[in-house]
Amino acid sequence: MSDIIRLLPDSVANQIAAGEVIQRPASVIKELVENSVDAGSTYIRIIIKDAGRTLIQVVDNGKGMSPTDARMAFERHATSKISNAKDLFSLHTMGFRGEALPSVCAISQIEVKTKTPEDPMGTRLIINGSKVESQEPVICDSGTNMMVKNLFFNVPARRKFLKSDSVEMSNILREFERLALVNNNIRMSLEYGEKRIDLRAATFKQRITDIWKNSIDKQLLPIEVDTAIVKISGFVSRPEFAKRRNPLQYLIVNGRNMRHPYFHKAVLSCYDSLIATDTQPCYFLKFEVDPSSIDVNIHPTKNEIKFEYEQQIWPILKASVKAALGHFGAVPSLDFTTDILPVKKLNEGEKPVQPKINLDPNYTPFISTEGKLHNKERGKVDREWESLYSDFMSAARGFGEQNSNREEKSLFPQDEADNSVGNLCIQHDQRFIITSALGKLTVIDQRKAHLKILYEDYLSHLEKNQIVTRKLMFPEYIQLDSGQAEVFPTIEPELRRIGFEIEFAGDSGAKISSVPAIIDNVDYADLVLSIYENIMDDDSNYGREVNSIKRINEKIALTMARKSAIPVKVRLTEDEMEHIVGRLFSLEQPGITPDGNRIFMTIESSQLESFFN
Ligand code: ADP
Ligand code: MG
Predict the structure, then answer these.
(1) 119, 155, 413, 530: which has the fewest C-beta neighbours closer than 10 Å?
(2) Is residue 164 over pLDDT 80?
(3) Which of 20, 79, 142, 296 has most ligand 1 atoms within 8 Å of CB, for mutation?
(4) Which residue has the least CA distance to atom 25 on ligand 1?
């Protein structure tokens, strides 16, 4: 038999590698801009056409490449940043593997002009799907001008996988924000369509406010610690600015934006009793560590990182965030820019009186006296909850009527309800309903149960297209960032289908004039944005191929249920508990929430017996 194993040609190997490194136009931008940063540029210009489909151009004023280097740069494993395997482990180099350019050139048509400051002439190189078409001297500025055209032109499967222009553009804007934040000392601009964002070289704080506008300024609390193993600097947001959606959260390690779930948790835990449970703080943290103590090669796109001193950094991080929160009175405080202090003028002969301040000596920002929420927040939640609950009760009643001919699998048939002890519900810790169902001791998570009930309710409305639209007396406005504005028109029909009426007004925002009648008393702007995020997060090709209506319905129902379900912790009356239990167990699958969490647990009498024997 003849031999059958062959080596793949480089172009094919590169296409395979490209699958890992380049998922979408935004990934090309990341790789090109990082190269420009590494080349010591002080101004990086990005030009995008058709959301990166037809053109991604990055122009820098860095150190450029010699003619030979320009050619070499597109070879696999060609890098100027590491020279031996030892370098791999002393990663000043942040995971350089010389993979980006060969990957990009395997799936696009590239034209690059580059010149070093020393050379009088530059080089122009044209590469078409890994194949070098021409290389010639050219007159050009020092630096590198990289044009990536027709991304995925030779990989139809990948091209099809791209989402709509608006979604890809929104990804690009996110990536640009990340890159701009990390490289605050470099001037960076992004041109797309008629639009242009130009960010001056700035301090970290200026860059944050340049990107996210000045209003973010007063939310920021500075952080600064310097220890032998790590230097942490940057900002966390004041608790009162915690966000329900899209919190800005950035962890920058040695100049690269990284994901680190463990440290993310550390930051969040500092806010534990300071903010509502469905909100998150923003943070912009820079870590400087010894490069040999981190490993960024665990992920092909190099955005996950491992720290050697993770255990030691954790308490340092927590302490510094807590210090910032405590130090700067991150509890409600006077805003000196707007509040006028009532200072009375002294009359002649009058003695000044020491002002009295009402301090609660027992107050600490880290332990709230009433459960998870602060008093202010709590009052709000209670009120919302009351009205939510009354809706829920009427919905529950309505449900009973509609289904009166259906065989209710209720555990508590009406006739037994009065004298049976089976329906006794006890609330534990304001969170769990304890009852006896099907002869077992049953402990139910109240919020999860309510969420499941609402979800099934909303879903059946959506599936039957029984959407009644209700006009808002006072329209609500949504403020969109540029990425969201880009995507919004794509999901508008979807929102219309479920009963929203929304008008868009360019970048600045949108007006909600009507809402689905089945939901009441929620923050509609927030709901709309959550629905939008939920749909966008989906990996299926939303906006290109029709995402199956069923899936979208499920997502919308889940988002609405999450917004309307009762809080994790709230006191329930016995009636309320009975209704929840009754409705839950009339569902086909009472055991599991739509997002896959358990709703209740049971203990058999026999288990109880064996415990006592
Ligand atoms: P890596 O960045 O991991 O080294 P790349 O494939 O991204 O791998 O780049 C290969 C090499 O090409 C780099 O090491 C660098 O020497 C050179 N290079 C790429 N982009 C630029 C640029 N904008 N300016 C100067 N040199 C560049
Ligand atoms: Mg690179």
Answers:
(1) 413
(2) yes
(3) 79
(4) 64
